Amino acid sequence: MRLEDLRGRAMGEGLLDYTLHAQQKTTTTDIERRARTARCFGIIMFELFSLCLLLLFSVVRVAYSQATPPPWPFPLDLPGACDSMVFCKGSLLYTIAMSGAFSDSKDFIDSPMKMEPDYVIAAFNKLGNYSNENLVLFVSEYFDLPGADLIATVPEDFTDNPAFLKNISNDDLKAFGLAVHEIWRNLTGRFDHSQYCDECYSSIQVPYPFITAGSRVDFREYYYWDTYWSLHGLLVSGMYNTTKGMISNFLYLVDTIGFVPNGGRIYYLNRSQPPMLTQMMRLYYEETKDKDFVVASLPTLDKEYQFWLTNRSISVTVAGKQYTLNRYDTNNNLPRPEAFADDMQTVEGLPPQQQYDLFAAIATAAESGWDFSSRWFHDYLDLHSMVTPSIIPVDLNAILYRNEITLARYHDMANNTAKRDYYLAQASARMEAITQVFWDADKKQWFDYDMSLQRNNPTWYPSNILPLWAGAYDNQTITSDVLESMFDELFLVFNFSGGIPTSFIADKQQWDYPNAWAPLQYFTLMGLEHVFDLSKTARKLYQDLAQEWVTTNYCGYKRTGYMFEKYDVNMVGYPGGGGQYHVQTGFGWSNGLLLYLLRKHGETLITGSC
């Protein structure tokens, strides 16, 4: 309170009359004057005391404003996503991610810096006041908006009237197919780093435009295995150059980095995703017969295959015999930068080493593409029980088997018989391992193997039948009778109106019940198609599932105008839930499978009932 205010307050209460009117005649007694004077003195002393407290609080605030930022809580030599002291580790990342000032950790690390990292870090260290308000102001001053380096691009080979529409008999589905085709224009982009320094952004540049996985709210970059299904749709749309460019982008990443990272950000550089690049090439070749591109790319496809053999192989002994298979396994003992606050909350209260191990299991689950799923837990309701590196997954090994068969075929096409024979031998050994380690002759499924428990996990997941898609079985294992028993066992799986469920475990993880995902519908459909000759039931299940999936996609789009990342098996046309981010629209792999089915079965498919 200012001195003038004090004086005014005293004047208002008549306490300074004796000073201001000392020369006026008064009838007030001495006792009254002394009482009034005492009262005035007491109030003045109280106000002086209040002023002292205000000064003290000001000193405390100044002292706080000069405080250093919160320290990075982990040893700096622990392996993490990358070495950037802004985007992957360090006090700046820790402070902002844990502040709660931003709703999503990914928003900050997708924001390019306006100045050199050293200058930005120095400014942060001198910030002093690390309140949420100041952090927001700091980020707005030194960083651009999230995804400012992603530039929308119109694909050059996009056409307004794609040829596949002629194959669709139902007018509503034809209009639906055209609407989904047009989404490609909203999902195509490229990175533009021209206005930023070399270390000022987290995005990984590639030579050609790409399709983002979904809407630009959370997905501001390309993703690895998502792209396989996007390419399915792009090929249906006749966008061959865009498809070739995206495959070339991944070949470029293998040549420069050594593998295809999870996605197009440096904070994904310590993990990959299911190795679908060889199968992307297979899609492109089967559509275009571009032999020269395939042959020229073989050394790079070989290089990616060797990455998985060198860095993700594991030996397991079953019935006294040792087999070599592959697993997901990320060298990471820190929170994922894109989900920093979530991961910190997950490990809260654990001793340091258990935190490091759980961070590794979390990042490894992200590498699997199934982040998160009860597949990776010992206790379905406890994230602390995640043991992903201990799980040898059926689907990864089925994918690698199909890659081996595909690479053998392409090396034969290139007249490289030595490489052809190498891959055929690798495939033969893997098929035996898949049968001996995963196959359950009683339940007629292939089950993940848990090395920590030394047993299989006899729980339903669509990955249990992925070897049907890959052809990773022999004629003695899979017969007509075995398939009929398998489909009897899986009766409930095919008994939903919105696709097949990812599991029957309702644990609020997004890769569990009640969610249905396009990639898992695709693998199941293709697996069923591969055994048409052996099972009439397989053909009927295929037809029903294809129609159900088109219907749930159509009804969801009709109701909302969106294609969703995942759907609810119990509610036709409604998005799925769970996970660490809100449901995404767009959506690349949902678009791709839908367009694939419309072109292939457009003469018989209908909209179904919404």
Question: What's the layout of helices and strands?
Answer:
Blueprint: H1 3-12, H2 17-20, H3 30-65, H4 91-99, H5 105-109, H6 117-125, H7 132-142, E1 150-152, H8 171-182, H9 184-187, E2 188-191, E3 210-211, H10 226-236, H11 240-257, H12 277-288, H13 291-311, E4 313-318, E5 321-326, H14 340-347, H15 352-368, E6 391-392, H16 394-413, H17 417-438, E7 439-440, E8 445-446, E9 449-450, E10 455-456, H18 466-470, H19 480-489, E11 515-517, H20 518-530, H21 536-560, E12 566-568, H22 588-601
Antiparallel strand pairs: 1-2, 2-3, 4-5, 6-9, 7-8, 9-10, 11-12
Structure characterization notes:
The chain has helices at about 5-10, 15-20, 30-65, 90-100, 105-110, 115-125, 130-140, 170-180, 185, 225-235, 240-255, 275-290, 290-310, 340-345, 350-370, 395-415, 415-440, 465-470, 480-490, 520-530, 535-560, 590-600, and strands spanning about 150, 190, 210, 315-320, 320-325, 390, 440, 445, 450, 455, 515, 565-570. The chain is mainly α and about 600 residues long. Helix 8 (about 170-180) packs antiparallel against helix 22 (about 590-600), helix 11 runs antiparallel to helix 12 and helix 20 (about 520-530) packs antiparallel against helix 21. The model is unreliable at about 1-65 (pLDDT under 50).
